[in-house]
Amino acid sequence: MILGYVGTLFSVPPSTASPIWPPAGLALAVMLVYGKPVLPGLVLGNLLLNFYSFLDFSSPESMQPALIAAAIITSLGLCLQASLGAYLINHFLGKQNPLIKDSKIIYFFLLAAPISSVVSATIGIASIFFQGYISVEEVLISWLIWWTGDCIGVIIFTPIILAFIAKPKKIWKVRRKLVSYPLLIMFILVAVLFQYNQQQESNRVAAVFERQVNKFHFMFNSEILHHVEINQVLKGYFDSSQYITEKEFDIFTRPFLDKKHNIQALEWISYITAEQRQQFESAAHGNLIMREPNQQNQMVPVTERAEYYPITYVQPMQKNQRAIGFDVGVNSIALKALMAAKVSGETVITESLQLVQDFERKTGFVLYSPVYYKASDAGDRAKNLKGYAAMVFRIDDEVQKIILDFPDVQLFIKIQDRGSKLYSNYLQTKITDLNLLSLQMTKQIQVANRIWTIIYQPSADFYLQQLSWTTWWLFLGGFAFTSLMSMGLLMLSGRTLRTEELVRSRTQDLAESEERWQFALKGNRQGVWDWNVLSSEVFFSTSWKAMLGYAEQEVGNSADDWYKRLHPDDKEQAYAKLEIYFNKGTSTYENEQRMLCRDGSYKWVVGRGMVVAWTDDQKPLRMIGTMTDITEQRQTEEALRRAQKMDAVGQLTGGIAHDFNNILNIILGNAELLSMTLNMDEKARKRLNTITKSAERAASLTKQLLSFTRNKAVKVTRTNINTVLLEMGSMINRSVTPEVEVEHLFAEDLWFTEIDQGDFEDVVLNLIINARDAMAGSGELVLETENHTLDAKYCASHPGVQAGDYVQLTVSDNGEGIAAEQLEHIFEPFFTTKPQGKGTGLGLSMAFGFCQRSKGYINVYSELGIGTTFRINLPRAKRLEQNPEQTNIQTEPLPEGNETILVVDDEEDLLEILRVSLEGQGYTVVMANNAKQALEQLVKEPKIDLLFTDVVMPGGINGFQLAEQAKAKYPDLKILIASGFTQKVAADDNQLYLNANLLSKPYSQAEVIRRMRVLLDSTS
Fold first, then answer.
1. Partners of 795 in the β-ladder
2. How far apart are CA 953 and CA 961, in angstroms?
3. Could you tell me the sign of the dihedral formed by the alpha carbons of 487, 492, 494, 495, in that order?
4. Fewest beta carbons within 10 Å, which of 100, 253, 512, 872?
């Protein structure tokens, strides 16, 4: 169909034969390669193509059986031609002959193609001749054009198509470049040249057509306007006289009729009421009787009605005698026009109607101009109506008169009134689709109260007279040259096939390498760019654009399109690195930068490139490179860096807290011993109490540090945080000012979570107090809970977060917000955004530590001037039962005992304090500085009842490990563990039972003694 469409572009009237018909070459090529099995497909394809060529499906007038028959016969002729051509080539040259030898190439071009092309031309021209579409004089030239078209189509397009489908494929594939592409280029050049010349010729023909249309339209419009003017004159005549006789009417109208203006009739139509009928018919009108036609079209007296519109006078009489007395009101079309004229007072023209004076089926038009007895307004016109001056004419008479007067006008004319056809001479020709140049003009004329539309097209005689053959001779000369080129290229390619085979092989290797390169880029999610440095033009690959979310057409080809998407903070660095590379400072260009995406976000990418061409003065000419998306990598690295930083801070603060706890333990222990052993006055005792309280305050501060570093919760229970928050309601309200509005948005079906409830309450209070301070005493505080599920995609960019179900607590305020540069430090110990003296900087670090040891996480979102939101996500509880509460330890009275206790700590002073305290209560004390000494003491003293050990100790064995080894050898041994820092050596799952007997540093001596007594008295 495509090749057929190309052929129809060059069709020549009147036979519409084309001097180049590519489908002929396609048909012969497929017959040579596939043989008879393709004949049904060829018949069907050519049938559709010829239907397209012969028929205009948008115009029912063109759907003539003769044209359909011509299309079918022509299709069969082309298939027969292809079969004959294939037979001649296969018989004389051999099947699947690659046309390598010069002799066989010459045979193909000079014998097979011209001989086989005779078939289609003869059958096709004979078909349209016998159908009457061309005359005898036109047969020869039409046959030559048809034969030439098929012959050139075979000579040019058969080698082109064979290069893609023929066997052996290796030989014909080489000819794609050597034969097919040059021939296509030659064909296109000749076709373009022809089209240019044809366009010039078409413009000239169109100008002639426009002149003829304007000439006819002017004459036709003038005639119609003249009819209206005559009718207006006739109206004025009746307006000026009270009564006009038939003779006077004849004398007045004769000059108009003598001038032969194609007037069918001039008439006077009286307006008669029912009361006036008898008087009208018997008055001075020659006893005129008003009549109307019956079913046999015989004139009979009119029936009774309220109003009559009889034709009283008519001229010329000899051909309008039948109209005298005819009541125009019986014709609905005429009556409609009469009423319109009567109401408007203006001249009105009827639609096309059958005239009473015509026995043949002809249509005419009547102009009615109302005449009144006296001038009156619109409301009184009907009362004063006298009659109508009328003019009758036919459009076909007007058109024929103009065509006879101007025989050089060769047009098809169609006149319409609001879509209704009034006149058309299209059917005067047998061929209705000869408008090869698609010339058409539409004009309008005003006829009284109606607007007529006139459509003009050139007739067949117009094309035969106007089209010049010069363009076609140039066309045929060009394709004759192209045909010789085709034969020469085939000969040349036949002699150089071995060389071309080598080129083909290397080209194939190069193509495979290109495929691998493209595949590698896609697999690595690389975007490619190619920069002409001098012209600033850049090629961005589709993957480069898609990486940033852009469609193909949304990114231009200029370096500015890259520059304007570069993050403002990265522009200086990117250009600096380019400058260094251009000055040979680095071997390649590489830079990490942020690029603007289509949705307004930025992505981190790494751009790499290399100059592949330099100018003579060593300036960069062309640079090629790639762009790789590293956003996810950067996010992961940033999150990991933050996690490592917090871990490092935790290690540091934990270590400090551990040593500080030991010091506080020594201070508190000595203070406690002093208070127990010395008799001091009130002043000294007051100072000792001050020392104790200060040490306890320091211990409280250390506890906050430890809550940041501890990764195991001490007392975990299955908790519904909605319940906890409701119980904390009064505490929360007291923590904020009355001007702060607290809103609760709690999920009704909130999941349970396993947490240390006391730690959770501390975290909530710290967040509430921070929000209160940020709102400067007034604002809105929102506490919201909900169930939340995190997927793997989210966790990939948040190291340390596990996918699964979480209970989420959101604490939001509309306070002053936190600056972006402070957000990454917000959870560090001692970092605070509050003024000096207003906060310790440990509240959020404690919250961070709580979330870590609860296997959850905390996030903060804040904007200056808008507010801050903290989101705490805690894992959904897996256990259904409630944890049993631990037994409360009695605090009174201080117990005594006689058991043997092994105390292990690396602080000598602390050991001494413990020894004094325990011995004072009756216990036997064995001391060790590390785990190794403790194990040795257990061997020496097998009667040891309880092991009291610190967690962090030198020597490579921590307190948990020591307890585990001691318990393995001495199952009945009671164990109490003291912890000042558990981040590095937290108990694993096999040591969780030891957490029940965990004592936090700093501790009082009384607390140690009570805990030991409880353990010694227990049976487990």
1. none
2. 11
3. positive
4. 512
CA distances from 790 to 516, 753, 795, 802, 848 (A): 38, 16, 7, 8, 19
User: Does residue 501 register a pLDDT over 80?
Assistant: no
| Nearest residue to 76 via CA among 46, 53, 49 | 46
For 506-567, give the secondary structure using H, E and C.
Answer: HHHHHHHHHHHHHHHHHHCCEEEEEEECCCCEEEECHHHHHHCCCCHHHCCCEHHHHHCCEC
The whole-angstrom separation of Cα 30 and Cα 43 is 13
Q: Are strands 753-755 and 740-745 parallel, antiparallel or unpaired?
A: unpaired
d(CA 398, CA 406): 12
Question: Parallel, antiparallel, or unpaired: how do β-strands 779-790 and 740-745 relate?
Answer: parallel
- Encoding tokens for residue 200? 């010039």
State the DSSP string of 320-386. TGGGTTBBGGGSHHHHHHHHHHHHH-S-EEPPSEE-TT--SS-EEEEEEEEEESS---GGGTTTTEE
Better-scored residue on pLDDT, 774 or 452? 452
Write down the pLDDT at residue 806: 93
In the numeric block, which tokens belong to residue 385? 């109506």
Q: What is the pLDDT of residues 221-251, one digit of tens each?
A: 999 999 999 999 999 999 888 888 888 999 9
pLDDT per residue as tens digits for the range 834-861: 665 455 666 787 788 888 888 888 888 8
Q: Which of 344, 343, 341, 425 is nearest to 391 (CA)?
A: 341
Q: Is the peptide bond before 893 cis (omega within 30 degrees of 0)?
A: yes
Residues 6+ apart with CB under 8 A from 227: 261, 263, 367, 391, 393
- Sign of the dihedral through C-alpha 126, 132, 136, 140: negative
Residues 244-291: tens digit of each pLDDT: 888 899 999 988 888 766 788 999 999 999 988 888 888 755 568 889
Strand pairing report for 998-1000 and 974-979: parallel
- What SS3 class is residue 710? coil
Q: Tell me which residue has tokens 């249509």.
A: 363
Give the DSSP H/E element, type plus range, for residue 654: helix 631-677
Q: How far apart are the first and last CA of the chain?
A: 96
Other residues' Cβ atoms within 10 Å of the Cβ of residue 240: 9
How far apart are the C-alpha atoms of 224 and 214, rounded to whole Å?
15
Which residue has better confidence, 160 or 657?
160
pLDDT at 982: 43
The pLDDT assigned to 431 comes to: 43
Residue 964 CB neighbours (<10 A): 17
What one-character DSSP code corresponds to residue 17? B
d(CA 641, CA 664): 34
Give, in order, the Cα–Cα distances in Å from 861 to each of 151, 864, 869.
Answer: 79, 10, 5
Q: Are 75 and 41 in contact, with CB atoms under 8 Å apart?
A: no
Coil, helix or strand for 719?
strand
What is the C-alpha radius of gyration for the chain, rounded to an integer number of angstroms? 55
Token pair, residue 833, equals 């955004």
User: Is the Cβ–Cβ distance between 935 and 965 less than 8 Å?
Assistant: yes
Q: Are 271 and 410 in contact (CB under 8 A)?
A: no
Instruction: Supply the mean pLDDT for the chain.
Output: 79
Find how far residue 467's CA is from the centre of its chain: 49
